[in-house]
Design goal:
The structure is a single chain. The protein has 367 residues and is of the alpha+beta class. It has 4 domains: 37-53 and 287-357, conserved putative lor/sdh protein from methanococcus maripaludis s2 fold; 56-65 and 210-281, Elongation Factor Tu (Ef-tu), domain 3; 70-97 and 175-204, RNA polymerase II/Efflux pump adaptor protein, barrel-sandwich hybrid domain (OB fold (Dihydrolipoamide Acetyltransferase, E2P), Beta Barrel); 99-174, Helix Hairpins (Orthogonal Bundle), CATH 1.10.287. It has 3 helices and 23 strands. The strands form 5 sheets. The chain has a 6-stranded antiparallel β-sheet, with no helix packed on it. A 6-stranded antiparallel β-barrel has the order 3-12-15-14-13-16. A hairpin with an 8-residue loop joins β14 and β15 (257-263). The longest helix has 36 residues, at 100-135. It is elongated, with a radius of gyration of 43 Å. Keywords: Coiled coil, Signal. InterPro entries: RND_pump_MFP, YknX-like_C. Residues 1-32 form the signal peptide. Residues 288-356 form the YknX-like C-terminal permuted SH3-like domain.
Length: 367
C-alpha cells in the first residue's frame, strides 16, 4: 500500500509578520515592567564641598604611653617577682627584696630615738633642779649653762635619730618594688635568688590601656602637619578618623623623617606592636566635592554613585575617587555640592528606578 504526503506551503511574508508582532509584544511588556518598577527603599545624603588634600599613608605602630623598665632602689637578694602577664594596678607589688637588714636598721634607730627621749626627760628634770639652786646662788652660773647646753645638744641628737628612723622606714619600703602605673608585666629582667643593686632592672611594665600610634613622616610634610590635625588610621579595609596628638618637629639626619604621635579612636581594641597605617595630607588642602564613603558602589567596571535626580529617580554616575578621610571621599564625575546621593540601598538599585526614603518619605511622588 502506498501513502502520499501532501506538502503545504506557508507564505514567508506571513511568518515574518508574526515574529515581529511577538517581539513587539515582548518589548512592550518589558518596557511596561521597567516603568512599573516599585520604589526602592534607600537612605540619602548630600554631597558637600570640603577642604581636602591628597593623602599619603605612613606605616605606624601601636605603642603604649607608659612602657618602663622598673629598677630596684636598694641592694639585696631578690626573694619574689611577679610572673609575666600579671596585670597590676598602680602601687601593686612587682618584686620583693630581702628586707632583714632594713628591718634591723629600723629597730636600731627606733631604740636610739627612745634612749634619747629618756635622756632628755632626765636632763629636763636636772635642769629644773639646777635652776632652783641657781636662784638661791647655791651653784655657779657655769653649771647651769652647762646643763642647758647638754639638754639642747641631746634634743638635736633626738631629731637626727628620728630622721634615721624615717630613713630606715623608707629603705624598708623600698624592698618592695611597686608599679608606678597600671599595666602588665611583659618581661622579667631578674630572677629569684639574684642579687639586686640600686638601678638594677627588675621587670618591664607596659600600660596596655593607654595606647597611641607612632609613625615616621618625611620632614617635607612639616609645613602641612600640626598638633591636633585630623588624620585617619587604616587597618586592612577599616578606616577611622583620629587626630595627631603631637608632632615632634625634629628630623632624623639619616632618614629625614620626624615622629608623629597619633591618638587612637575611643573604644578601639589594639595591642602594643600592632601595625597600622596613618593617612596624612600630602599637600595643602583644596576645595573638592565629597560624598560619604557609603555612597560608593564598587564594581569590576569601576566605581559609581547613585544620584537622586529632580524627578526623584536614581541616576547612576561613574566617578573617580580622590582624597579621602575616614568619613568622606572626594569624587569627580558629574557630582556637585548639594546633590543627593544614595548611601543605603544602592546595591540593587537600577538606572531610572524611583526611590523612597526610609521612614516613609516617597521621593518619587514628592510626599
Amino acid at each position: 500500500m502506498t501513502y502520499t504526503i501532501a506538502k503545504t506551503k506557508i507564505p514567508l511574508r506571513g511568518t515574518l509578520v508574526a515574529v515581529l508582532a511577538a517581539a513587539s509584544l515582548f518589548t512592550g511588556t518589558a518596557g511596561a515592567q521597567q516603568r512599573q518598577m516599585p520604589p526602592a527603599l534607600v537612605e540619602v545624603a548630600e554631597a558637600s564641598a570640603e577642604m581636602m588634600a591628597p593623602q599619603t599613608y605612613l606605616p605606624g605602630t601601636v605603642v603604649s604611653l607608659n612602657d618602663s623598665r622598673i629598677s630596684a632602689e636598694i641592694a639585696g637578694r631578690v626573694v619574689w617577682i611577679a610572673s609575666e602577664g600579671t596585670l597590676l594596678a598602680e602601687g601593686d607589688v612587682i618584686a620583693e627584696i630581702d628586707d632583714r637588714n632594713q628591718t634591723l636598721a629600723l629597730a636600731r634607730n627606733k631604740s636610739q630615738a627612745a634612749r634619747l627621749e629618756a635622756r632628755i626627760k632626765y636632763l629636763e628634770s636636772d635642769l629644773a633642779r639646777l635652776q632652783e639652786l641657781a636662784a638661791n646662788n647655791n651653784i655657779p652660773s657655769s653649771r647651769l649653762e652647762e646643763a642647758e647646753s647638754t639638754l639642747a645638744m641631746t634634743r638635736e641628737e633626738l631629731s637626727q635619730a628620728r630622721v634615721a628612723v624615717e630613713q630606715a622606714k623608707i629603705d624598708l619600703e623600698r624592698t618592695k618594688v611597686r608599679a608606678p602605673f597600671p599595666g602588665r608585666i611583659v618581661e622579667r629582667l631578674a630572677q629569684i635568688g639574684e642579687y639586686s643593686s640600686p638601678g638594677r632592672q627588675i621587670v618591664r611594665l607596659v600600660d596596655t590601656e593607654h595606647l597611641e600610634v607612632s609613625a615616621k613622616a618625611p620632614v617635607t610634610l612639616a609645613r602641612v602637619l600640626n598638633d591636633g590635625q585630623q588624620v585617619v588610621i587604616r587597618e586592612n579595609d577599616a578606616v577611622a578618623d583620629t587626630r595627631i596628638r603631637a608632632l615632634v618637629p625634629v628630623g632624623d639626619a639619616l632618614s629625614r623623617t620626624m615622629e608623629l604621635r597619633v591618638s587612637l579612636p575611643a573604644g578601639s581594641q589594639y595591642v602594643v606592636g600592632a601595625a597600622l597605617q596613618v593617612g596624612v595630607p600630602a599637600n595643602t588642602p583644596e576645595q573638592v566635592v565629597a560624598v560619604p564613603r557609603d555612597a560608593l558602589v564598587l564594581r569590576r567596571e569601576g566605581t559609581y554613585v547613585f544620584r537622586v535626580k529632580e524627578d526623584n529617580t536614581a541616576e547612576r554616575l561613574m566617578v573617580t575617587t580622590g582624597a579621602a578621610t575616614g568619613r568622606v571621599v572626594a569624587v569627580t564625575g558629574g557630582i556637585e555640592s548639594g546633590d543627593r546621593v544614595v548611601i543605603r540601598g544602592g546595591e540593587r538599585l537600577r538606572e531610572g528606578q524611583p526611590v523612597e526614603l526610609r521612614g516613609g518619605v516617597n521621593l518619587a511622588s514628592g510626599r
